[in-house]
Amino acid sequence: MLSLEAEPRAAEALDTTPPVIDISALTVEFPTLSGRSSTAIRELDLSIARGEIFGLVGESGAGKTTLARSLLGLPPAPGRVAAGEIRFEGQDLLRIGERALRRMRGRDLSMIVPNPRSELNPLLPVGEQIMTVARVHLGVPRREARRLALDMLRAVQIPDPERRMAALPHELSGGMAQRIVIAIALVCSPRFIVSDDATSGLDVTVQAQILELLQRLAADRGSAMLFITRDIGITAHLCDRIAVMLNGEIMELAAREDFFFRPRNPYTITLMAAFAHNEGLRRLWTRSAPPLEPAAAGRACPFLARCPLAQPRCAAERPALRELAPGHVSRCHFPVPR
Ligand SMILES: Nc1ncnc2c1ncn2[C@@H]1O[C@H](COP(=O)(O)OP(=O)(O)OP(=O)(O)O)[C@@H](O)[C@H]1O
């Protein structure tokens, strides 16, 4: 059930300085055997302010992971950024070169992924793994790296951190291992964090603890966060603004209250109905959308095949994102009345 229990963070609490991350017209493509490329992210615009947690919701295949990885300059192979800009504090990450980007990853930009087991080195104590990141990226001596690692273990609420420094990943529960992954991602206090489905697979209580932790850490450090998830319910608790994405395109984007109380796009509404009321609908939602024929995909609305309100115009003309109220945009020819 959706709820907006968490206290909304006051708009004025968000910084009004230029965005930390500013993505414009980003297009990411994958080559196909036919020789034509398929578009996983299409002309996407998005900016995130300092201290803001931005939620990006999308079903399987929407392009979430492709976007997350592209933002760190690592689109999944053989994908490639075909067009657009990704500005981090004004610098275009797509044009600064691999060496500069490598220095920034882990230090200024960081990513939290699910499946901690596959992220962590199974043979190295977790404390060493956090320390290595601090030493490599911050250039601090071993003693300072150890202090930072211990501070980080305390911040992610690992009990008995001194002893846990020496633990190997398999000696920790899934929730603990995920906290270690977060500790690694945050030890250098990055100014931009991408969390890609970071809590999926954890049980609900652990998930809630980790979300609370992420929220607190982002607030304490003033980081901007892109929180990517399939679960729209999570964003209601955590995020300042939310966008819903389909087939590599943003369908609707709004501040949290507008998004949940005044959604205007039929896709967003279908998605909320599915999560709120009905297990059958929910299953339908978590299924991938049937792909459109390439010819139709170029000109039709991405939600055409499933939209209960579709009209002939939706097949003939791809809707553009339109601003319906300040800060509230939707991609639909026939926005649902407020
Ligand atoms: N390595 C790849 N090669 C070819 N196509 C890919 C590759 N990775 C992703 N794609 C395509 O890009 C599109 C977006 O996929 P992506 O994995 O980013 O979606 P997602 O929203 O993260 O899905 P999920 O929630 O299932 O992880 C899909 O159409 C997918 O088929």
TrEMBL record:
SUPFAM superfamilies hit by this protein: P-loop containing nucleoside triphosphate hydrolases (SSF52540)
MF (Gene Ontology): ATP binding
Domain ABC transporter: 23-272
Major site of localization recorded for this protein: membrane
Coiled coil: none
Keywords, in A-Z order: ATP-binding, Cell membrane, Membrane, Nucleotide-binding, Transport
Source species, domain of life: Bacteria
UniProt entry tagged with the keyword Chaperone: no
Membrane topology type: Peripheral membrane protein
Membrane spanning residue stretches: none
Keyword Isomerase: no
Subcellular compartments: Cell inner membrane
Family: Belongs to the ABC transporter superfamily.
The protein's name in its UniProt record: ABC transporter ATP-binding protein
Organism this protein belongs to: Paracraurococcus lichenis
